[in-house]
Amino acid sequence: MKRKLxxxxxxxxxxxxxxxxxxxxxxxxxxxxGATTLNMLVPTYSDGTKALWExxxxxxxxxxxxxxxxxQVESWENIESVLQTKIQAGEAPDIYNGGAFSAxxxxxxxxxxxxxxxxxxxxxxxxxxAENEALDGxxxxxxxxxxxxxxxxxxxxxxxxxxxAPPETWDELYDAAKKISATGTPGYGxxxxxxxxxxxxxxxxxxxxxxxxDESTITVDSPENVEAAEFMKKMITDGVTQPDPGATQRTxxxxxxxxxxxxxxxxxxxxxxxxxxxxxxxxxxxASVPTNTGEPSxxxxxxxxxxxxxxxxxxxxxxKFMDFFFAEDQYVNWVQTEGFLPTTKxxxxxxxxxxxxxPFLEMLPSANFYPTTNPAWNATDGAFKSLMGQLExxxxxxxxxxxxxxxxxx
Length: 410
Fold this sequence. Notes:
About 45% of the residues lie in helices and about 15% in strands. The chain is α/β, with parallel strands linked by helices. The chain is globular and about 75 Å long.
């Protein structure tokens, strides 16, 4: 059936390069009349991000007399350099919305999550996302937004090829892709170009019980991963993917899907909005990621809130803010308006009636993540982007062995 787009996803899809006015802040802890001041640094997700946070802050300050929150909003292009400048000046934000956190945790700059959020707030996070916020067994980040991959399929191409239902296993995926390819349209889109070969690979690896390892060990050429890569190669060799997957980038491939010219792809919640803009008449569906055995698994990504210690006397005020924000009434509105998925169990339950988001929400507990806290991850990521495309014409085990060597040498 044709999909109807939630308002938040339309806003995200329409948002381009955004500039949001911001105000700086200093490192002082006291506001007017002896109030505690929390300085908060966040990036732009849409043209409504600033107003959303201002609404949260207004409600929070009304409910928590004696705590003032000073908001600073920066673009994603600038926020990391702004943060580093503030840290070097001794003016780190009390609350920061960003990506990587391990370096700050290793330097002792962050509060453990249990010191700046209540047990009930921490316990409400999806376990898979909470575990991704830990370093050496201690959770530091509070997962803010979630995104997972799901299978997008063209219903008209399914009908034309005689595919009765979205696949749940690799064998079913192969059969469906083969039938669609026989009609003259590529059955499955496999982007192994430099844009996101690592993402496509992890979806397949995790779907066979594999992955990329953890904070201490990078694992690329495991038996599970090799078996998955061999199945990927079979898809390519047997001609059930688009031509030249090794040079295919994800973004343009998704555009081709949106025009009805590929049978199946793995994509994000935001892809719903992109299709709504590019081709609102596309007859498509969204389903869980097929895996080797049919057990649920997918690729997950998340941004987080983290709290810098600074002078060490703001933990109580920060805890009040975190508990207030992650409460269902505030948090669900924020996530829905920005067009992302919730990281909390209560948020998933509240948003579960949205049929467009339902397949994504169902996959949240089975999300697998990049081992970004491992020092060798950057080298591994680069090796996947430069080498995984060779799967087209090289042995799967050899390709993964080359990537493993790059990771081990870093």
